[in-house]
Amino acid sequence: MRSSSFPIRLTVAGAAAIGLVIPAGTAAGAAEAAPADGKARSGCVTISFIELLVTTETIDAAPAGTSVGDVVVTEDAVLDEDRNRIGTNDIQGVIIKHDPATGELFSFSTSKYTLDKGVIRVAGIVDLKRLVEGETLKLPAAGVKGRYAGKTGELSWTLISATESLNSIKLCD
Q1: DSSP letter, residue 2
Q2: Which of 104, 116, 140, 161 is most buried as measured by Cβ atoms within 10 A of its Cβ?
Q3: What is the Cα–Cα distance from 17 to 168, expressed in whole angstroms?
Q4: How far is 125 from 21, CA to CA, in rounded Å?
């Protein structure tokens, strides 16, 4: 194991997790689409929060340094707007593409948000180059426990430093 550098930490942040860009009409659009019976969906909830890195551990696959197969395990604190802790995010990311020539760096990441009012799972392909360039990225999300159980939607993730991001999760019935 090695200590994590800025790019490696990003492989699992957020949300959020570490940032899958969802094409129009996929999970994000489906969360707000009207059902087949034509009735509008109700029961949406949006959680906006700050995510702060607490611990990170990297399992370095050969060759040494950032490479396909590296695994990063992270625990983040989930904070409200007043920076009070409202939960945790346990993340695991695996590097699936790394091209030093172009700067491309992708991971497949899974997250478990354990919040005061329930549990939300997030997973997807994270485009770290776009995240570092300042884009807000999206990942599909599913509520699995408590207030969020049975709801689906997306995580929006904006990195503001190597250890902090501004996120929101919108889930609907």
Answers
A1: B
A2: 140
A3: 12
A4: 8
pLDDT at 173 over 70: yes
Least confident span in 36-40, 142-146, 149-153:
36-40
CA nearest neighbour of 140 among 11, 12, 6, 23? 23
Residues 9 and 131 sit within 8 Å (Cβ to Cβ): no
> Checking DSSP bridges between strand 118-127 and strand 164-172, what pairing results, if any?
unpaired
Q: What is the mean pLDDT of the chain?
A: 82
State the sign of the Cα–Cα–Cα–Cα dihedral 31, 108, 51, 55: positive
Query: Model-level pTM?
Result: 0.76
Q: Tokens representing 2?
A: 């090695």
Identify the CA nearest to 122 among candidates 55, 57, 168, 162. Answer: 168
In a 3-state reduction of DSSP, which class is residue 6? helix
Residues 6+ apart with CB under 8 A from 84: none
